Amino acid sequence: MKLYVGNLSYQMTDADLESTFAAFGAVNSAKIIMDRETNRSKGFGFVEFDAKEEAESAIENLNGKEVSGRSIVVNEARPPKPRTNQGGRGRF
Fold first, then answer.
1. Is residue 85 a part of any domain in this protein?
2. Is 79 exposed, middle or buried (0-12, 13-18, 19+ CB in 10 A)?
3. Neighbour-count burial of 85, counting CB atoms closer than 10 A to its CB (0-12 exposed, 13-18 middle, 19+ buried)
4. How far apart are CA 21 and CA 61, in angstroms?
5. Are 59 and 75 in contact (CB under 8 A)?
6. In a domain, 58, yes or no
7. Could you give the number of structural domains in the chain?
8. 3-class DSSP assignment, residue 15
9. Model confidence over 30-86: pLDDT tens digits?
């Protein structure tokens, strides 16, 4: 089960994110989304668990809690919306 984690501190790393969620079970992956141009955190990320029960426990215990000075948002990740604008470059 994949979780969306929002309102993260911009200084938080993937390892910090993983250790925050490891208390609730085996984390498959923890990834903070970075801006391609500035290589800085966008303030959100995703954490993936194998067991649905572990993910639900993490949501229940961490949603709204303060982590690194910020009240984080944790919920089940929704599938990405299909992109319609591919580059925006117009025709020649």
1. no
2. exposed
3. exposed
4. 10
5. yes
6. yes
7. 1
8. helix
9. 999 999 999 999 999 999 999 999 999 999 999 999 999 999 999 999 988 887 766
Q: How many CB atoms lie within 10 A of CB 68?
A: 13
| Residue 54 in domain | yes
- Please give the full DSSP string across 20-79, using - where no structure is assigned: HHHTTS-EEEEEEEE-TTT--EEEEEEEEES-HHHHHHHHHHHTT-EETTEE-EEEEPPP
25 lies in some domain: yes
